[in-house]
């Protein structure tokens, strides 16, 4: 069964550093999403990406965040100048209109 | 803004029991998602439904659009069903902007 692959599974970074979280969505899916889950809290929507541009974003997704699909297969989330409160599990998902969403296994980001 | 409420928050069952998890939302939606989150944190999509009922193996999901309510049922529960079950509402006109519930932590004892 096709999978959404996320790397790394765990990333530790110093406060103020930039991180890039990587995702390889399912190849024939057209919609790509990022979500985050702070420990013990609900999952929250960050951003939708379609046709090589952001189609929707939440209030959380401020100028500190950016997404891109640099090579037609990878889908990345960049966090500039990380803060302690960015520590969370970040999930990538892709969607097939008929069959729904497929989530990756997540990247646990720890900012120290 | 849509609010998604789940009940119960925690549920302990004996193996073989029939389990029901409830989800209610406050405004109209285009789809309701049921997700499973395992202890390691990974999320698996179980169902996406906009009306009626769907069944996959021992799992059944129903939705009542008029009452803004959905249920997830597990028949003949098994310890491997132990996980957090999350419902998420997708509003009309939105793409990917899911409003998630807090989740129901299910523990099935052998």
The helix content of chain B is under 10%
What is the helix content of chain A? Answer: under 10%
Poorly predicted ranges of chain B:
none
SS-derived structural category of chain B: mainly beta
Q: Which spans of chain A of ≥5 residues are poorly predicted at pLDDT below 50?
A: none
Largest sheet of chain A: 7 strands, mixed
| Sequence of secondary-structure elements of chain A | EEEEEEEEEEE
Radius of gyration of chain A: 13 Å
Mean pLDDT of chain A: 94
Specify Rg of chain B, calculated over alpha carbons. Answer: 13 Å
What's the pLDDT, averaged over the residues of chain B?
Answer: 94
For the largest interface, the chains and their residue counts are: A-B, 26 and 22 residues
Q: Could you say which structural class the secondary elements and strand pairing of chain A correspond to?
A: mainly beta
Element string of chain B (H = helix, E = strand): EEEEEEEEEEE
How many β-strand stretches of chain B?
11
Shape of chain A: globular
Got a strand count of chain A? 11
DSSP summary: helix tally of chain B = 0
| Residues in β-strands, percent of chain A | over 45%
């Amino acid at each position: 069964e096709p999978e959404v692959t996320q790397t790394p599974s765990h990333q530790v970074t110093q406060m103020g550093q930039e991180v890039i979280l990587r995702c390889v969505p399912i190849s024939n899916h057209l919609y790509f999403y990022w979500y985050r889950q702070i420990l013990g809290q609900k999952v929250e929507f960050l951003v939708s990406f379609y046709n090589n541009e952001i189609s929707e974003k939440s209030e959380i997704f401020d100028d500190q965040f950016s997404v891109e699909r640099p090579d037609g297969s990878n889908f990345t989330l960049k966090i500039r100048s990380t803060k302690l409160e960015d520590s969370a599990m970040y999930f990538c998902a892709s969607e097939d209109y008929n069959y729904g969403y497929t989530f990756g296994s997540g990247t646990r980001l720890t900012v120290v | 803004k849509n609010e998604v409420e789940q009940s119960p928050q925690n549920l302990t069952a004996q193996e073989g029991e029939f389990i029901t998890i409830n989800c209610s939302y406050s405004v109209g939606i285009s789809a309701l998602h049921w997700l499973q989150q395992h202890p390691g944190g990974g999320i698996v999509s179980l169902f996406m439904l906009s009306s009626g009922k769907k069944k996959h193996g021992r799992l059944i999901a129903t939705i009542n659009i008029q009452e803004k309510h959905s249920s997830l049922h597990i028949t003949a529960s098994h310890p491997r069903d132990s996980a957090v079950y999350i419902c998420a509402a997708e509003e009309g006109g939105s793409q990917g902007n899911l409003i998630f519930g807090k989740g129901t932590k299910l523990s099935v004892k052998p």
